[in-house]
Specification:
With 142 residues, the protein is an alpha/beta fold. It has three helices and six strands, in the order αβαββαβββ. The chain has one domain: Rossmann fold, CATH 3.40.50. A six-stranded mixed β-sheet has the order 2-3-4-1-5-6. The structure holds adenosine-5'-triphosphate and magnesium ion (MG). Pfam families: TsaE.
């Protein structure tokens, strides 16, 4: 699907969120896209739709940011940026197995392709592409 603007991307992210349902384990969403493709903007759209009012920025240096949620089906939004992770083993530092085991967690990971092997089966994959002509978004799962 074409995305004409950041506003439309965020709206689309909100629509995507509304369709997620809580499972037996965490809901994991992997974002794939080149530098500047709109990964963080997508997370901002999700965060806004969850009622998060503080500004969401890329957790490039802290690796992970956690937002507590009230009045939402999920208990917390966990935003991870895998850009600086040196492979799957570094996710373990974030207590990964505990995070993905908790059904109240909504985990959104930028640069998911860098840690694909650590992502559980059923992870939703959101791919963002951009060229001079157009920006697109497509959905799949692991
Ligand atoms: N669909 C869009 N239309 C127009 N501008 C967009 C769109 N998506 C993102 N942008 C703009 O592109 C820039 C980069 O977006 P963003 O930070 O979300 O990308 P990113 O994929 O997270 O980048 P990084 O790889 O650095 O993490 C921002 O200025 C954002 O406003
Ligand atoms: Mg980003």
């Amino acid at each position: 699907m074409h995305v004409e603007s950041v506003e439309q991307l965020k709206e689309e992210a909100g629509n995507f969120l509304q369709k997620l349902t809580i499972g037996e384990k965490a809901t994991v969403v992997g974002l794939i896209g080149e530098l500047g493709a709109g990964k963080t903007s997508f997370v901002q759209g999700v965060a806004e739709a969850l009622g998060i009012t503080e500004s969401v920025t890329s957790p490039t240096f802290v690796l992970e940011k956690i937002y507590q949620l009230v009045d939402a089906p999920f208990g917390q939004l966990i935003h991870i940026d895998a850009y600086r992770l040196d492979g799957e083993h570094e996710l373990k530092q974030l207590d990964w197995d505990t995070l993905i085991g908790n059904p109240k967690n909504l985990i959104v990971i930028e640069w998911a392709d860098r840690v694909m092997r650590a992502l559980p089966e059923g992870t939703r994959i959101v791919t963002l592409t951009h060229s001079k002509e157009s920006r697109d978004i497509s959905y799949g799962s692991k």
